[in-house]
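ok trying this again, last paste got cut off
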Amino acid sequence: MARGATGGSHATRRRLVLIGLLAEPGARPAPAWPDLSGDDWREIDRMAQVHRLQPLLHHRQQDNPAIPRDIRAGWREAFRESALWALQVSGELAATHALLDRAGLAPVALKGAWLAWHAYPHPALRPLRDIDLWLPADQIIAAYGLLREQGYQAADDAQLSLDQSLRLDKHLPPLVSPRGVLVELHHRLWEIPGRMDHGAPLADQDELRDQTIRIGPIAYLDPQDTLAHLIIHAVYDHRLDCGPLLLADIAFLLARTPIDWDRFARDARKGGWLKGAALVLDMVRDHAPHLALPPPLPDCPAPPGIAADLLLQELDTRQSAGVIATLRAGGLRAFVLRILARRADRAGAPVARDLRGEGGFAAWATTRLARTLRELSRSEVRGQSRRLATLSRWLDS
């Protein structure tokens, strides 16, 4: 993982230490850290909390005397709380899936739902923020209406209509279940072309749906397709801001199920996500060197050395950094559309978000631009925007 560093800065060193603490036995050692101060450990713990890493750190490092006792105690408590939350989410997943199933709809649980209960050694190690259920596009409005009738509430004020979300987003506005769990209904597995600063991978969604599996009453993506989904979601949809759980997700998935690597390479090349696959598998080799991974994928240039910083980028500045990254990578038109709160696919006219809940368009645009300019005065935000733009340009190169 050392080759993912962007320099010798103190912040980068902390990030590398955290990623090293998450790595599996036998991984490349983390940078030397005996001289870490209390402030260093508190910052490492803060990053771990932001990226849902504390339960896994408890699992990996609970007996490590080099880590301050209070930090380890906090990780132990995070594991306990995550275990309780996992029980609640498990019940909600079963109830929501059954509700849609009984109505003749065809929900498929995505990513964390399979990983937490069928790949990780304990579901608490893989905290879920929400439940993602994938449905055919011609069923999703009916599914949304059914959940609303059953007491599921809108999580936020919707800024797009359901029809606009169906055209421009990969999921409808999130709902909160009667028991307080966030549920997202997806009609696409990843972003449409034109939504990001780089090209979007292609997907044969009918083929992926034909390959789904069923464990008990719940349908899931096939694990090999889950691997592809994890890579595309992390790299192309989120430019790695989903955090180092990505590495653990893939390591536990690969330890749990065999992968047809020839098919994987064919799918990646056909779908246009070969570079993202090469980038992620390169990181996984460092994270879990005992895994039987294929050699580096052919015909793929070396990725830029920004992975460690992007895996632990600051989430509260990603919007501002992303706005400037859009200017750097996508040009002035893409930047203006983002500032003006417009969304568009490559074939359609831009659609304006409904910003009445944020004081109207003028108030939103002024606030968004002012915040972006204010945060750009911080060197770390400028660096974050450069790294985001670098990744987008590399993906399209």
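PB: full thing came through this time. The chain has two domains: 87-309, 314-396.
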